Amino acid sequence: MLSFIPTICPYCGAGCGILLAAKDGNAVGTMPWSRHQISEGRLCIKGWNAHQFIGHQDRLKKPLIKDNGSFREATWDEALNLVANKLKEIKGKDGPDAIAVLSSAKCTNEENYLIQKFARAVIGTNNVDHCARLCHASTVAGLLAAFGSGAMTNSIADLGQADCIFIIGSDTTSQHPLIARRVIMAKERGAKIIIADPKGIQLCNVADVYLQQNPGSDVALLNGMMKVIIDHGLEDKEFIQERTEGFQELLQTIHDYPLDKVERITGVPAADIEKAALIYAEAKSSAILFAMGITQHSTGTDNVMSIANLAMLTGNVGRAGSGINPLRGQNNVQGACDMGALPNVFPGYQAVTDAEKRAKIAEVWGVAELPSQVGLTVVEMINAASEGKVKAMYITGENPMVSDPDIGHVKQGLENLQFLVVQDIFLTETAKLADVVLPSACWAEKEGTFTNTERRVQRIRRAIDPPGESRPDWEIVCELARVVGAGQLFPFTSPSEIFDELRKVTPQYAGMNYERLNQPDGLQWPCPDESHPGTPILHTKQFTRGKGKFHAVAYREPAEEPDSQYPYILTTGRVMSQFHTGTMTRRSPALNNEFPEAFVEVNPEDASKLGIEDGDWVEVASRRGKIEIKALVSDKVKPGVLFIPFHFAECAANVLTNPALDPIAKIPELKVCAVAIQATKQSK
Ligand code: SF4
């Protein structure tokens, strides 16, 4: 019998409602959920095909153990005993910090909560992180410093009230198609659209002004816009006076950014910068959308603080149609952060260094103490593995062999480990390097909650059984804890029981429970008690930190600039029908057929200089490695800039990218590195 189960799309952070069609134990299709407030009866190509990878023949169905370089199938008892014994042995010999854990933005809130609890309460380390480190760590750091909360300030539907939408560093149509739909709807009712992006994106077609800045020049661009606003007297004096601090320091820095200087740094004509600044400042309500084009820089935190400066300067925070809206990439990256799958904070962003918070959480968890030292971030874990300081890693639902910068170095680090366990739904490029692989259930095969980019906590529902012996991640963690001898800390028999514990230690989720979350719209945090309706807009009366803080941010160059050996700038991104490391979309025929292979986008002027034609094979090399890839000659990038989507393992952009870190957020500079390009052979 065909049934339709209401659940949430497993791809991007928009969090669209899906009706998953199931028949005879198989997922056979999807339908948009018409009552759902994000999707409003629509889905993008990924949502329409979200069922396709679920029953793929490559799904892992039994635990695997590597013997003499080859995998063999094992029982759960054998695999979990091996994992437990190895973790105990390494912890006993080298201490808990010799172990590192990667949680997953694909897993539910309940699972992320358990994974970080396992790292802290069972292993005894804060070495727990996840892919937010590679996408929005700088958002969390920058907005926390400016506002006291690192999350999206407004709601997706709220774009319907914006008079101006400024999109910077977000290819919204490719990554968050149903948010791009809201932008187009806003344009149709008369809102002005400003786009700033080093690569021409589809939304440029509806832009009133397009600023094609040089990769890594965002702070200069934003400072230039702020100088225009101040020179025209368009700052919101009342808002600045009543709700902010640090304005005088900002003013001093801004005066160093006259438009001729900004034009030189950014490559954007001064007149366009002025036009954009005036549109943004003169609109009644201006909203900013941004994503990884802003965050994945060694200046990522500076970029985000600059965006916060611009919004506060014009009073565009705390009102409908305004705000700062970081678009989170993965379905549950917001939730994984909320759940404390980060090395410096417990659930609810409570610092691990705060003795009072530590004691409170230890009491709820029933342990004597918790580690107080901030743990390692994603890139630091790999560096420590490479140096022999981290000896074991437990990776759940992440694929650093495609997603992380400088893949050659990642491989060397993972191969240097004494023990690697990977828990996933497919044998990913990373899982292939593991000593033990634990097969897990996917989104359609378990209960739980995801938190979307606008802080909306929504239930997902089990539509079918997991294949073979694979199990939901939460069950695997509980079972592993039992085998390790810590079963009493993980007595859970259902995700709702886990949720009831996590809300006790996550103040933003305190008023939520499964019954309240049963409604199609879920609840937006903060939701401090059970009578609270949730919070669509943050910072309405005052900022979470009290006053909003301006930061005087000066432009710094990217960590790697072009030179005679590597004369081009490479920037990376996405295409609409693929997702992240391709683990799911490349096993979904309808999606993979749309974009089956990688390409490097080259400006026609550069292509002609280099003797490259559309479809030719070229070699792209950086200081870290080289790949062979097909050329796509296109004027969407300007001369001197190349673009490669990062989804494709066989010619992975991240072989080339620079692991240089933002000093505060420790996010790597995935968006700028210096490369060389040359023709290799002609296409057939
Ligand atoms: Fe899924 Fe995002 Fe597409 Fe919505 S916009 S259907 S959440 S991929």
State the CATH class of the largest domain.
Answer: Alpha Beta
Q: Please state the CA-atom Rg, rounded to the nearest Å.
A: 24 Å
Structural category is alpha/beta
Give the strand line-up of the largest sheet. 5-4-18-17-16-6-7
In the predicted model, the low-confidence regions spanning at least 5 consecutive residues are none
Question: Main beta sheet: strand number and arrangement?
Answer: 7 strands, mixed
Helix content: 25-40%
Number of strands: 30
**Proportion of β residues?**
15-25%
Which descriptor suits the 3D outline?
globular
So how many helices? 23
List bound small molecules.
iron/sulfur cluster
Distance between the termini: 49 Å
Classify the fold: give the CATH topology of the largest domain.
Rossmann fold
What is the total number of structural domains?
A: 4
Q: Mean of the pLDDT scores?
A: 94
CATH architecture of the largest domain: 3-Layer(aba) Sandwich
